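Supplementary Note 3. Input sequence used for the single-chain structure prediction.
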Amino acid sequence: MVVKLKLEELKLASVVFHHLWTRRNGLIFQDVFQSPSTVTTMAQVDHVMYKEVLTKDSERTARRQTNEFSQSWKPPAWPFYKVNFDVAFDQASGRMGIGVVIGDSEGELMECLIAPKKHVPSVFQAESYALHRVMELCIELGLSQVCFEGDAKVVIDAVNSKEEDSSWYGQKIEDLQQIMAGYPEWKIVFVHRTANVSAHTATKLAIRVSSENVWLEDDPVEVRRSIMDDLVCNVLNQS
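The predicted structure, written as discrete structure tokens, is reproduced below.
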């Protein structure tokens, strides 16, 4: 008997096949073994994120067509710091870049970080690693009152969720939740790309460098320009 798959099932199957091929290459060339359950979970997560990207693209197109108000960056209330982060991920090479911009209640830059990383197998792992590095950075700086913002919706929603997940991905999320639990005045919020432009700009630089770079109370020209645009936009929105 021949069973015809529905369109969504066919899309998921294609993602599973891709991960099976990646699993085979990882075992042959890197001596890394992934269990069938891990492959299935990774495929399901990537499929969900793929649909999310398509939805975001449709939403962005609709907003442009209807001239709806776009979400913009706003400085945090004193004495909080706002930490915007973003991730660039190249599936073919397994390479990612992290962009982080930390600002105070006046909109002034406190720190900017860009960092590359190799051998990353999926978008989910790239985004969860980025959030983990961002949290580490805030701990290093001694920041106890922080609002994290990013457009990694799947990871952010998972960290904010109270549901238990016993999968490998669930363990990564639990690690992030445990760090958050130690800082009761930390919060993490999903924002659209329009409210995360500075971090996105930093990420474009991160994917091109070979090691982590940090700027204290200073930043690359491209990031500074984005920050100034955010501040101007915020003033115009308030007027």
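The two ends are 67 Å apart (CA to CA). The chain has two domains: 7-66, 81-238.
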